Amino acid sequence: EASKCNGDPFEMLADLVTGCYGYKQVEPSCSCCTCEFSVTAPERIEKLRNLQVLGVVHIARGSKVAKNLGELTSLRRLGVDVDATEEVGKDLCSSISRLVHLERLEVRSRSLEFLKEARKAEEMPPKHLLSLRLCGRLGNLPGWMDRLKDLTLLALWEESFAEKTLCFGEGTFPKLKLLYIEGMENIESIQIKDGALAVLEKLEVKKCVNLDDSKDGLSLVLVLQNLNELVLTSCGDKPKKN
User: Fold this and answer.
1) Is 136 left (phi over 0), alpha (psi -120 to 50) or beta?
2) What is the pLDDT of residue 29?
3) Any coiled-coil ranges, and where (predicted)?
4) pTM score of the predicted model
5) Of the residues 79, 97, 110, 229, which has the fewest C-beta atoms closer than 10 A?
């Protein structure tokens, strides 16, 4: 089998961690939804059964990679840049749900609507995820995110949330320490209820130009007793009207 695949692509991918996917403790950012540093995932990548880290790989339309990723059950870190069709999105969700050891997940696509199609528990990401990064049009957040009780890092980029108010209710993400929000033009307020994000240490908000620059913009941020770093960049700079 190795000779048929020429071997080299699989040997290279055994330790594939590109600079775009920050597996080390670095600040995440998203300059665009399609990652310029991603590489096309080869077919039959499922042969690498011992692979633990993979990303960022591009999954093209018509590719079988999304369906076969579920065979890589040793994966702990995964980053994908997806040309999402209904079929590819469904296959990717099914594969991710089978990665029982997955700790860090990053998904980039022009549209992430397929992430909201997961209804049953077996279609959802592993509940022990530590890090989740989303970049792409999503609208509102999928309901399954509420069950990610072990999450310590959450990054929401571009249009991954399109409503005017982002609200974190009581008991939300009890272990979350790092929260990054970037490029959400519709957001006017971020509401943090008492008892939410109880151990949050860093909150970084960038390029949310319509964020209310009054106290209502970051409602109840004072309830975050463990917060030691609050970064606001290019927020409240509303576009000038002609």
Assistant:
1) left
2) 56
3) none
4) 0.83
5) 229
